[in-house]
Amino acid sequence: MSDAARIEAAIRERLAALSPIAVDLIDDSHLHAGHAGARSGGRHYRLTIVSEQFSGRRTMERHRIIYAALGDLMQRDIHALSIVARAPDDAPAA
What we know:
The chain is α+β, with helices and mostly antiparallel strands. The protein has helices at 3-15, 36-39, 59-70, 73-76, and strands spanning 20-27, 43-51, 78-86.
């Protein structure tokens, strides 16, 4: 298994703790080739996640929940993470 596949599997495994209804994880690392974070091995991701756990929470709280779930991956394997976190009753982002 490649490093990229191992990291993506670890991300999905940890996010499963949030009981997501939907997860869309896109690796944008190729767009950042040569960037300092890319040179050190950190990858760049875009995440869209829908979970009941986000209901009634503000954006920053939702992001903190995700960062907590990802734990040390944020320090070691993920250099950048763009997040769209929605509750099931939120209107989709336009």
